[in-house]
Specification:
elongated, disordered N terminus, disordered C terminus, Arc Repressor Mutant, subunit A, Rossmann fold
Length: 795
C-alpha cells in the first residue's frame, strides 16, 4: 500500500511532496557536475602522466650529459674529473665568453682566489655557499634577472653605482626608491619592454619578509622564466649563532619553498661550521659538497684562505694626548702613504666627521678626506666614490657597519681602532683587494681598555671579544697571522687550514708583520710578580675602605701620583645628598713602597692582570655613560695571601710581562722625537674637536688640582696640561666646587655627551662634541719616573 505524503494544513506553506521534488532536482544537478569533474580528472590524470614522462625524459638527458662529461666523451664541456665529480675550477664551454665579458665590463684580466670555480658552478645552476669575495659575471652572462638580497642600503647603493658605471642594467627596490622608480622597475622586471634587460635587482631582507606585492612580482618573474638566481649577501645573518643575526633573514626560507628550481647563492665573509649548518637548515639547502669534486646533487661549497699575505698587520702606540692622535695618524699617512688611498674606521657617525675634518687640518690640507656613514645621502656617497676613485679624496673615514659598502681594490692602508678581532679582520678586508701590499694599522694604548669596555658591556659576548682584542694588541712577540688563526679556531671553530697558504702552514710565522720583523733587542721581558703583588695589595686596601677606582686612577695611585689618595663614599647617604670623602694610602705600609713602573708600563700590567682574572670589571650606569671600575678578581688571592718575604723568596705563581723598549717617544711614522702637538685651529674649528680619542670617542680635559677621586682624572707627571685620560661620569648632578684647600674631593658630573646626542643611534658611543664648559684646576706635577722612557705594548 502506497504511503501517503501528508500536505501541510497551513495556508502559504509549500507541500512536502513539492519540496521533495525540488531537492531531487538539485541532487541531479550536483550528480551531473560530479560526473563532469570526474571526466576532467581522467583527462588531467592522462595529461599528468604525459608530463611526468616528458620530465623524466628531460632528467634522463641531463644525467646522460653529466655521465658523458664525467667519462670525458663531451670534449666541449671540460671541468669534469675522470670517473669522479665535477671540478668547477677547470674550464667549461662558457669560460671564453665569461672572461671576455669580465674584461670588457670590469677591465679585469683574471679571477682572484677561487672566483673562477664559483662563477662556473653558478653558470651550472648549482646552489652555492661561498665564504669569500665573488663577482657579478654569472648574472651578466645568464638570461634573466638575478635577485640580490643585501642587509645594507649603503652596500646596495655602492654596488649599483659600480655596476652602472660599468654599463650594467641594475635596479634597487628599497625604502629610498621613489614611487616612480619602483613602478618602472617592477614593470620591467615582469614584462619584456624591448629595452635593455635588467640583469640584477637589489632588495633588503625586509622586502622579502614584509612585502607580499614584491613576492607576487617574483612569482610572475619565475613563471615567465625571468628569475635566474637568488643571491643572499651576508648570509651568516640567518643564524642566531652568528655574530650579526637579523630576524628578517630567517624568513628567507620561503624562497626555496616558492622557487624550488631557482639556484641560491649564499655569500659570507666568515661562516663557522655551526653557522654553516644553521644556514643550510634555514635556507633549506642540501648538504654541502666540495667544489673541486662535486657530485650532481648538493650545495657546492667554496672558501678562500682567510690569510692574505699581502696584508701587513701592525700595532702602533696611540699617544696619551687625544689631540695628538689626529696628528699621529696624519704624520703616518704623509710619511708612509703620501699618495695612496686609505680608510680610517671610527666607532660612531659623529667620529667620522670629526676625524675627517681633523686629519685634513692636521696635514695642512695635504690629505683630502671624506665621510661615509648611514646618514650620508646617496648623492653624496656617489660623489664620494667618484672623487675617491679619481684621486680627489685620499682618505675615507667610515663606521664599520656602513663602511663595508666602500669598495676599491687599490686601498693601500686601513687605520683601525677596533673593539673586537672579528671587526678588526673585517675592516682589514677592505685593504689590498688587488693583491698588492697594504698596511693594516691598529692604534692602541692601555687606556683604551677602560673606554672600549664601556662601549661593549651591553653587547652579547662583547667583553670576551674585547679581551681577545686586548690580548692581540698587547702581544709584541707572536706573529699576527698565528694570533688570528688561533683566535678564529677557538672562537668560531674555523679550521686552522683556513690560514694555510700554498707556501706555509697556519702556525708558521708570516715574516712580515710588526712582531715578525721586530728587533729582539727592543723587547724587555721582566718578572713582574712583585709589582703584581704590590698592585693587588693596594687594590685590596682601596676596596676595604669602600673606594672604587678606574684603571687610570689605579695606575696613578700605585706609583704615588695624584697625591696618593682616592675617593670613598661617606656619611651613609645616597643620591643627591651623598658625600664623597678622601682616603689616603700608605704605600710603604701596604705594599712596601711605590710600584716602580712608568704610567704606560703600569697600565699595561694592569690590563694583563685583568686578562688573567686577577682583576675584574665593575660597571655603573649614569644618565649619559657607563663607568668602568676595577675590582679584585678570582685570581687575586693567589698572590695577596702571600707575604712580601714569600714573594721575594719565589713562592706563588710567577708573572712575566714583555714591554717594548724605545729610547724615546716616536711618532707612529717612525720619526724620532716627541709626538707632534695638536695644531691650533685657525678657522673656527674648536681645539676640543681636534682633541679626540678615536677608540673612546670624546674625552674630557683634566682639571687642575684634582686628586684621584671617583669623578676625577689624574694627570700623569710627564704629560702636558690639557691632555686627555680615561674618564668617569659620576652618578650625581653637577654640584658647586669646594673652595680651594677643602679636604673634600671634587664632585663633578662630566657627561661625555649631551641629552640631545642620545638620538644619534650611538647611545653607548662616546661623542666628539665640545665638552661642557667646566672649571678646571691643574694637578701638581710629581712622580718618581718620566713616562717618556718606554712606549709599551705587552703580551
Amino acid at each position: 500500500m502506497a504511503t501517503m505524503i501528508q500536505g501541510s494544513s497551513k495556508d502559504g506553506e509549500i507541500p512536502s511532496y513539492i519540496r521533495k521534488k525540488n531537492l531531487n532536482i538539485q541532487i541531479s544537478a550536483v550528480d551531473a557536475e560530479i560526473t563532469s569533474i570526474d571526466a576532467e580528472i581522467v583527462k588531467l590524470q592522462k595529461l599528468r602522466g604525459t608530463l611526468i614522462e616528458e620530465r623524466n625524459g628531460l632528467v634522463k638527458q641531463i644525467n646522460e650529459l653529466d655521465s658523458s662529461s664525467t667519462r670525458g666523451d663531451n670534449t666541449s664541456s671540460k671541468g669534469k674529473k675522470h670517473g669522479t665529480g665535477i671540478n668547477y675550477d677547470d674550464e667549461f664551454e662558457w669560460t671564453v665568453p665569461m672572461k671576455a665579458r669580465m674584461k670588457a665590463v670590469f677591465g679585469i684580466d683574471d679571477f682572484r682566489l677561487c672566483q673562477n670555480a664559483v662563477c662556473n658552478s653558478n653558470m651550472d645552476n648549482r646552489d652555492i655557499v661561498c665564504v669569500m669575495p665573488t663577482g657579478n659575471l654569472p648574472a651578466l652572462l645568464s638570461p634573466g634577472c638575478t635577485l640580490v638580497i643585501s642587509p645594507l642600503i649603503s652596500l646596495i647603493t655602492d654596488q649599483i653605482l659600480h655596476l652602472r658605471e660599468a654599463g650594467v642594467e641594475v635596479v634597487k627596490l628599497t625604502g629610498s626608491t621613489t614611487k616612480e622608480e619602483s613602478r618602472d622597475a617592477t614593470y620591467r622586471l615582469v614584462h619584456e619592454t624591448g629595452g635593455k634587460e635588467i640583469k640584477l635587482c637589489y632588495v633588503t631582507p625586509e622586502k622579502i619578509a614584509k612585502s607580499k606585492s614584491f613576492i607576487s612580482i617574483l612569482e610572475k618573474m619565475n613563471s615567465a622564466g625571468r628569475l635566474a638566481r637568488i643571491v643572499i649577501d651576508e648570509a651568516h645573518c640567518v643564524s642566531q649563532l652568528g655574530h650579526d643575526f637579523r630576524p628578517d633573514y630567517k624568513k628567507l626560507s620561503i624562497l626555496r619553498t616558492l622557487f624550488p628550481r631557482v639556484p641560491i647563492l649564499a655569500l659570507s665573509a666568515t661562516c663557522p661550521p655551526a653557522v654553516l649548518k644553521d644556514l643550510l637548515h634555514v635556507l633549506r639547502l642540501k648538504a654541502v659538497v666540495d667544489g673541486s669534486n662535486a657530485p650532481p646533487e648538493g650545495t657546492v661549497y667554496f672558501s678562500a684562505p682567510l690569510y692574505r699575505k699581502n696584508l701587513h698587520y701592525k700595532v702602533l702606540p696611540k699617544p696619551g694626548a687625544a689631540g695628538a692622535v689626529i696628528q699621529t695618524m696624519a704624520d703616518y699617512i704623509l710619511k708612509n702613504h703620501r699618495t695612496d688611498s686609505g680608510i680610517i674606521y671610527c666607532l660612531s657617525k659623529k667620529d667620522t666627521e670629526t676625524v675627517a675634518e681633523g686629519i685634513a687640518k692636521a696635514s695642512g690640507g695635504k690629505i683630502q678626506t671624506g665621510v661615509y656613514h648611514a646618514d650620508v645621502q646617496d648623492r653624496q656617497k656617489e660623489g664620494l666614490h667618484k672623487k675617491w676613485r679619481q684621486g680627489e679624496i685620499q682618505v675615507v673615514c667610515a663606521t664599520i657597519a656602513f663602511g663595508m659598502g666602500i669598495d676599491m681594490a687599490t686601498v693601500r692602508f686601513v687605520l683601525h681602532h677596533s673593539k673586537s678581532m672579528d671587526g678588526f679582520y673585517q675592516e682589514s678586508g677592505r685593504a689590498g683587494r688587488d693583491g698588492k701590499d697594504a698596511d693594516c694599522v691598529l692604534y692602541y694604548r692601555g687606556q683604551d681598555a677602560t673606554r672600549l669596555t664601556a662601549l661593549t658591556c651591553g653587547e652579547v659576548g662583547g667583553q670576551e671579544k674585547l679581551h681577545d682584542m686586548l690580548r692581540f694588541a698587547q702581544n709584541v712577540t707572536e706573529c699576527r697571522k698565528v694570533l688570528f688563526a688561533n683566535y678564529f679556531s677557538a672562537s668560531s671553530s674555523l679550521s686552522l687550514s683556513s690560514w694555510t697558504s700554498s707556501t706555509a702552514g697556519a702556525l708558521t710565522r708570516c715574516g712580515h708583520c710588526d712582531n715578525c720583523t721586530r728587533d729582539p733587542e727592543t723587547l724587555d721581558k721582566r718578572d713582574v710578580t712583585l709589582e703584581s703583588w704590590q698592585i693587588l695589595k693596594i687594590m685590596h686596601e682601596i676596596e676595604s675602605q669602600g673606594g672604587r677606582v678606574t684603571l687610570g686612577m689605579l695606575a696613578d695611585l700605585i706609583r704615588g701620583a695624584g697625591g696618593g689618595s682616592f675617593a670613598v663614599s661617606g656619611g651613609g647617604r645616597k643620591g643627591k645628598g651623598k658625600s664623597k670623602e678622601k682616603a689616603d694610602l700608605d704605600l710603604d705600609a701596604i705594599a712596601g713602597g711605590k710600584v716602580a713602573l712608568s704610567k704606560d708600563d703600569a697600565e699595561t700590567l694592569l690590563i694583563q692582570l685583568l686578562l688573567s682574572h686577577h682583576f675584574k670589571e665593575d660597571f655603573h650606569s649614569t644618565s649619559y655613560s657607563i663607568n668602568v671600575y676595577l675590582l679584585s678578581g678570582p685570581q687575586a688571592m693567589r698572590l695577596t695571601r702571600l707575604s712580601r718575604e714569600e714573594i721575594d723568596g719565589g713562592q706563588g705563581q710567577r708573572i712575566e710581562c714583555t714591554f717594548l723598549k724605545k729610547p724615546g717617544r716616536k711618532t707612529a711614522s717612525g720619526s724620532k722625537g716627541k709626538v707632534s702637538k695638536p695644531r691650533k685651529s685657525t678657522d673656527g674649528m674648536s681645539q676640543a674637536k681636534l682633541d679626540l680619542a678615536l677608540a673612546s670617542g670624546s674625552s674630557k680635559k683634566k682639571r687642575k688640582g684634582a686628586t684621584s677621586s671617583d669623578e676625577e682624572v689624574s694627570e700623569d707627571e710627564s704629560e702636558e696640561p690639557g691632555e686627555f685620560d680615561d674618564f668617569i661620569v659620576d652618578d650625581m648632578p653637577l654640584s658647586p666646587q669646594p673652595k680651594r684647600g677643602s679636604k673634600r674631593s671634587l664632585a663633578l658630573t662630566l657627561p661625555d655627551s649631551s641629552p640631545t646626542r642620545l638620538s644619534d643611534n650611538d647611545i653607548w658611543s662616546f661623542n666628539l662634541d665640545d665638552p661642557p664648559s667646566k672649571r678646571r684646576r691643574r694637578a701638581p706635577k710629581s712622580g718618581p719616573m718620566a713616562d717618556d722612557e718606554v712606549v709599551v705594548i705587552s703580551d
